[in-house]
Amino acid sequence: TARVMVNRIWQVLFGYGIVRTPNNFGKKAAPPSHPELLDWLAVEFMESGWKIKPLIRKIVLSETYRQSSLHPEAEVYSQIDAGNMSLWRQNRRRMDAEALRDSMLAVSGELNRKMGGPSFYPAMPPEALEGFSRKGKAWKESPRQERKRRSVYMLSKRHLLLPMMTAFDFPNSEKPCGRRDVTTVAPQALAMLNNKFVHDRSAQLADRIVAGGMSGREAIEEAWRLVLARDPSGVELDMALSHHAKQKGRFERAEGSEPDLSGIPGQGLSLWLAADRGLKMDSKGRALRWLDGSGEEHHARQGESKRRPRLVRDAIAGYSALRFSGKGDYLSLEGEVVNSQANTIIAVARDRSGLVSHRGIFSNWNGSAGNSTTSLFLGLTGKGTVRFSDDYRSEGAIERPEDAFVLAASTGSGGSMILYNGSVIASRSSSLSRRKLGGSYVIGQQGNIDGEYWTGDIAEILVYNRQLSAAEIRRVGEVLAKKYSVPFSSRESIRDSDPELRALASVCHVLLNTNEFLYVD
After folding, report:
1. Is the sign of the CA dihedral 273, 277, 282, 284 positive or negative?
2. I want to staple 294 with a disulfide (CB 3.0 to 4.6 A). Which of 7, 82, 202, 272 is the partner?
3. What is the pLDDT of residue 313?
4. Which residues make up the CATH 2.60.120.200 domain(s) of the chain?
5. Residue 261: is its pLDDT beyond 50?
6. What pLDDT sits at residue 256?
7. Which CATH number fits domain 266-467: 2.60.120.200, 3.90.1150.10, 3.40.50.300, 3.40.190.10?
8. Does residue 25 have a pLDDT over 90?
9. Which H or E element spans position 234?
10. Per-residue CA distances from 344 to 83, 232, 378 (Å)
C-alpha cells in the first residue's frame, strides 16, 4: 500500500519509520508516531503517480530532515522525549554499506554513473573464496570500469557476499529484511583501515587532487573539501600537515637514499636464473639442472626426465629460454629462496597456453604445510591478470601474454606493486598480508599442487629478499627489456615511487576513516 511504501522511504531517510515495524502494519504493529503525516504523505505519493523521486524531494527539503543531530536544547528535550519520537532533532546514523561504497567512489572521482544493464561482479578478496576448490570459476570479477558502478548494480549471491559490505551490515539475501541491523563494531574500523578498496580510493583521490595542479597545503585543503565538504580548521590543518610530513619522510627512507642503478642490483639478490648460462642438459635436450647465478646456490633441478622442460635456443630475441609444456614440467629449487616479508620477484617469460586458468611461474604453495592461502607466488590467471600471492592480483592485465614480457612484483613497507613491461598495472599502499615463506620453491607450477602448470617460455628469473625501490625495478626492467628486445615503458610517474603523492594519499585515507565522513548527522 501507499502507507507501507511511504513508511519505508521515511525509514531510509531518518533511520526509523513513522511506523517502526515496517513489515507489520496490523493490529500487533507499533502505532505510527505521526499518523496524520503518514496519511498525508501517502495521499501525496498516490496523487503524484506513485513516483518515488518527488516524494524523496519533498521529505529531504523539509525543515525536519534538514535538522542537525546536535540541538541547543538537547539536555532539556531529551528528558521529555529521549527516543526522539517527535523528531525534535535529526537522528545520527551511519551510512549503509552501499552508500559508503558509492561515496568513496564519488569523492575519488571514479564513480561510474552508467544506468541500467546487467549486474557487475565486484573484486572478491581471496579469503572469501577459500572454501571453493576452483576459485577462478567460483567468481569471475567484472572489468575494472564496470566494478566502479553504483552498488545498486552489484551482484549479490546468498552464499558469497563481499566482506567489506557485510562488515557494514549488508543483509543476507536468503530472507527478506524489513529493517537492517545497525552495528558499530571493531571490524568496521579495521575494514576501513586495511581494506584494499579503501586504500585504492585514497590513492585515486590523491591522484585527482594532484592532477588539478595542487600540492602541499593547498592539496590538503582540497582533500578536506572533497571528502568532508568543508575547509579544515587551523588545528586540523596543522595536524594534517604534520602527518603529511611524517609520512613523506617515512616513504623517502623506504625508497632508499642511494639505489644501485648501475645494472642488476646485487644487494639482497637471492636467486638469478638465466637460460643463456648455467644450464645442464640431459641427452634429450631437457633441463637437468639450472645453476643459480646469485651466489646463494638456490639451484633448480628436476630428477624425473619426463618432467623436465626443454631448452629452446633463440627463443626470445636470439636468447635461450626453457619451454614448459604445461603437462607436468617444473623445476624444484634448493633451499629457502625467500626469507623476508619484503621481497621482489622479476621474470622474463612468454605465455603460450591461450588458457584462462591459473598458471604459475614461481611458488612455494604447499597445502599440507598449511600455507594454501599464505604462500608466496607469481603467476597468471584469466587472459592476462597477474597473481602475486592469494592476497593480491592486478587490476590491469598483460595485453599480449603470447609475446615476451618483463613482469615485476614487489612488496614491503613501501606497499605492493605489479609492473608489466615497466607500466604499473597494480599498486597499493599496504604490503602483502604475512606470508609463510618456508618450504620448497618451484618454477613452472603452483607449488606442490601438481597443477596450474606454466605453458610457455621462461628466460630469466630474479628474486630479492628486499623490496627494490621503484628506480631499481625500472633499471632492472630496462636491462632485461633491452636484452630480450621487449618494449618497455621507463616513465617516472609511478605513483608508489613518489613520496609526496603517497603522503597525500595517507592524509586522504585518514579523512575517509573519520566519523564525519561515515556518519550523517
Report:
1. positive
2. 272
3. 94
4. 266-467
5. no
6. 56
7. 2.60.120.200
8. no
9. helix 234-255
10. 57, 40, 10
